[in-house]
Specification:
This protein has 396 residues and is α/β, with parallel strands linked by helices. The protein is built from 14 helices and 13 strands. It has two domains: 127 residues, Aspartate Aminotransferase, domain 1 (Alpha-Beta Complex); 232 residues, 3-Layer(aba) Sandwich (Aspartate Aminotransferase, domain 2). It has a seven-stranded mixed sheet with strand order 2-10-9-8-7-3-4, with helices on both faces. The protein has a two-stranded parallel ribbon with strand order 1-12. It has a two-stranded antiparallel ribbon with strand order 5-6. β7, α7 and β8 form a beta-alpha-beta unit. The chain starts with 11 loop residues before the first helix and ends with a helix.
């Protein structure tokens, strides 16, 4: 049997991680892995999470299951965080999932159950796992134009033109904020134009929001998904707590299904429970319990939001610093767009050969499509990266 198993291409991020670990050069810089790092290169446990964990250790008296769709208070807290007062709670079906990836997978499974002939439209580029999971569950996929590498900006006209050819019932996958891998976000006016197109074409929106609070603020980063929720008859949301709560290994996520026709919510909720049962039965609760404690305790929430703001503003400082240093080192404004991007990632718009040269000549590790993790930098390595980029683009 095993000899008949298919082979799969090596994950490019895992490959880069392996190459980085085996590189003996002490000055090496890792800009590939998608986790937040502080100025010392460490991914810390957030203060409020640590406090909640200590409290939970003292009061928790059972490890029994909490239910097929997770604990109700976790679902309520996350719906409030993402959607605010955009829609009534009765309009939202939800289920806890193993991380944001689990939420994405369950959303695609739900699409396949409801409309197996639908095409899912994804941005070009998008997070690599989107397309991989779509292929795995057997849904058709098409790309819409999104990123203009030459200018480092959004190709919005191309996006609308491509989506105008989507058929009624097709799913449009949007990034809620801090687009991965480009860092380029829709403006409020562009979100509205996308909503108008979705309504005119009879499309189903899905929003993947994995970085709420990393861009312009908690509410600001959720403005797009809230607009879609208020405006469209149906909406799927995949949300992650990995980054903004720092609970990566606890695998804490949630899928939400919003329906303006609340009569549909009960059956949708039952289908989400069914999908959880088929895929992993009961979702993990430890991370979800910590997130719930933080969101529902005023002191813990205030401390979490303060630390999250420190993280957000720190990444913005690094963006501004890198853009300025690249302008100085290259004597051009070619990379000025980096200061305008948001979140952990930006695509620098350099070639694969230049990315290879960064690694081979300067021990700077990035993904082949030129995505870099801004949070992998610090005040010491920003000028090092800028000098390396200036060198490889000059020599190419």
């Amino acid at each position: 049997m095993f000899s008949a198993l298919p082979t799969h291409p090596e994950d490019k991020i895992l490959r880069i991680m392996g190459m980085y670990r085996s590189d003996p050069r002490p000055e090496k810089i890792d800009l590939g892995v998608g986790v937040y790092k502080n100025a010392s290169g460490h991914t810390p446990v957030m203060r409020a999470i640590k406090a909640a964990e200590k409290k939970l250790w003292e009061i928790e008296d059972t490890k029994t299951y909490v239910g097929l769709v997770g604990a109700p208070d976790y679902n309520d807290a996350m719906i409030d965080l993402v959607l605010g007062d955009a829609v009534p709670r009765a309009s939202v079906a939800s289920a806890a999932t193993p991380g944001g990836t689990g939420a994405v997978h369950q959303a695609f499974e739900l699409v396949r159950m409801a409309t197996p002939g639908a095409t899912v439209w994804v941005s070009d580029p998008t997070w690599g796992n989107h397309v991989s999971i779509l292929k795995h569950v057997g849904l058709a996929t098409r790309a819409y134009r999104y990123f203009d590498a030459a200018s480092g900006s959004l190709n919005f006209d191309g996006m609308l033109e491509d989506l105008a050819s989507a058929a009624a019932g097709d799913v449009v996958l949007l990034h809620g904020c801090c687009h991965n891998p480009t860092g380029v976000n829709l403006t409020a006016e562009q979100w509205q134009a996308v909503v108008d197109l979705i309504l005119a074409r009879g499309l189903v929106p899905m929003v993947d929001i994995a970085y709420q609070g990393f861009g312009d603020g908690l509410d600001e980063d959720a403005a797009g998904v809230r607009l879609v929720a208020r405006s469209c008859p149906e909406l799927l949301i995949a949300a992650s707590c990995s980054k903004n709560f720092g609970v990566y290994r606890e695998r804490t996520g949630i899928i939400m299904a919003v329906a303006q026709d609340t009569a549909q919510v009960k059956n949708t909720q039952a289908n989400l429970a069914h999908l959880n049962r088929q895929n992993f039965s009961f979702p993990p609760d430890h991370g979800a319990r910590l997130v719930t404690m933080v969101l529902t305790d005023p002191d813990l929430r205030a401390d979490w939001q303060a630390e999250l703001e420190e993280v957000r503003s720190g990444m913005l400082d690094l963006r501004n610093m890198l853009a300025a240093e690249l302008q100085r080192q290259t004597n051009s404004d070619r990379f000025a767009f980096i200061a305008e991007h948001r979140g952990m990632f930006s695509m620098m718009g350099i070639s694969g050969a230049e990315v290879d040269a960064l690694r081979d000549k300067h021990a700077v590790y990035a993904i082949s499509d030129s995505r870099i993790n801004i949070a992998g930098l610090n005040v010491t390595t920003v000028p090092v990266l800028a000098a390396a980029v200036a060198d490889v683009i000059k020599g190419s």
